[in-house]
Amino acid sequence: MSAKTISHWIDGKLSERTPERTGDVFNPATGEVQAKVAFATPAIVDEAVESATRAAASWRSSSLAKRTKILFAFRELVDRHKGEIAKLLTLEHGKVTADAMGEVQRGLEVIEFACGIADLQKGEYSQNVSTEVDAYSIRQPLGVVAGITPFNFPAMVPMWMYPLAIACGNTFVLKPSERDPSASILCAQLLAEAGLPPGVLNVVHGDKVAVDRILEHPKIAAVSFVGSTPIAHYIYETGTKHGKRVQALGGAKNHMIVLPDADMELAADAAVSAGYGSAGERCMAISVLVCVGNAADKLVPMMKERIGKLRVGDGLDAGSEMGPLVTRAHLDKVRGYVDRGVAEGATLVADGRGLRVDGRPGGFFLGPCLFDRVTPAMEIYRDEIFGPVLSTVRVATYDDAIALVNRNPYANGVAIFTNDGGAARKFQHDVEVGMVGINVPIPVPMAYYSFGGWKASLFGDHHIYGRDGVHFYTRTKAVTSRWPDPRHRGVDLGFPQNR
Fold this sequence. Notes:
The protein is α/β, with parallel strands linked by helices. The protein folds into 2 domains: 4-250 and 457-479, Aldehyde Dehydrogenase, Chain A, domain 1 (3-Layer(aba) Sandwich), CATH 3.40.605.10; 254-438, Aldehyde Dehydrogenase, Chain A, domain 2 (3-Layer(aba) Sandwich). The chain contains 16 helices and 23 strands. The protein has helices spanning 42-60, 64-80, 82-92, 97-114, 117-120, 156-167, 182-193, 208-216, 229-241, 264-276, 295-307, 328-344, 379-382, 398-407, 421-430, 466-472, and strands spanning 4-6, 9-10, 13-14, 21-27, 32-39, 125-130, 133-141, 144-148, 171-175, 201-203, 220-226, 245-249, 254-258, 286-292, 347-350, 369-372, 389-395, 410-411, 413-417, 435-438, 454-455, 458-459, 474-481. The strands form 6 sheets. The chain has a 7-stranded mixed beta sheet, sandwiched between helices. A 6-stranded mixed beta sheet has the order 10-9-8-11-12-22, sandwiched between helices. A 3-stranded mixed beta sheet has the order 1-5-4, with helices on one face. Strand 9 (171-175), helix 7 and strand 10 form a beta-alpha-beta unit. The protein is globular, with a radius of gyration of 25 Å.
């Protein structure tokens, strides 16, 4: 029996074209190909953009009331179908059901934020800036915008983009990850059911061919991206070269500083949860523990004990706490980093390379790995591994810890665990990172703030969602207005002045 083919969503319906190329969509828990996904040619991307362009003229003029009504309906449909969406995430990404449900919930929060667009998009007004002259500003949509999203959050990250872009009056072309594309199609169908006109949201699948056409297409005004730093840099450089507004969120090497006075039980729970949740395939995962003074002597044994009790298995199994990695190639890459860490001289406290999951011999499983006595010169410290590999670096002082974090080229998220309020307050001021947690290991902002890092973790001037998202998907128009009255003042060739 041949695998099903996941098609593009263009102009309010699934494409019926026979694809020239396809990619494999795996079930990471079994290692089997469960579907094929159509890869877009430049012509398919053009078709999606033309659909979005046709829809843009009427959608930008649609009332805020209509947009809000559709978004509220979409919110209800996503909530009603969240179990179905979560199951698709588990089947194609591998994350456990609880994690998948959490992903959908965080996406819902951005949809709910976008439902408030009537307030978020308000401009400013000044009366009588000059005699009988008023000035005001309005925020208007850009037109056709696009999103290129990663495999690790196939539902949530697209929801960080298209609900807000659509609420602002834009039309949207989404290129989700080809590794787990089904959630985006289901959400597009739910938006259509909610009343979204055809062409306002289009979904095209594919690889670099599709990405490059999006980046160079003259009718796409802006591109949002989340992924690795090298690709984020490429997206930003290529998109801006073609005259587009670009926000490109890159990679991370998130540190968690543990001071000697911290609640070690709390810190151990947090580090294991944040390091191994979703098999470490999170841009906000903790990947480096920075233990100050004797903190590591207390913390590492506690973590080893907790790691030994973690249940790794098929994400659909109720007892599983951590699932597989997304592909065989990624599994091999992450396992290679563990091998190199050992070769470089780090102490491997917990070794997940020998893990075997009953009944799933072909699955892409790697057990949790914990290193101690890692140094900044080691490859496992320098690189974003994106797997269940946690490194422990020992430093003598708080100042050493801050210096270590601030030297790192990545600056996405960071956390500190301490019971000292003064130290925590100093930390949030001193650290050069975009998102900060104090006794919170994964400081992902709520939807009414904005998500984004600093340095090599972000290319562009805007963070994603929140008010930054509204500003990214709109541009300001300033209007100066005077209505004629019977008292004409005649010709005046002087430079206009306020009077």
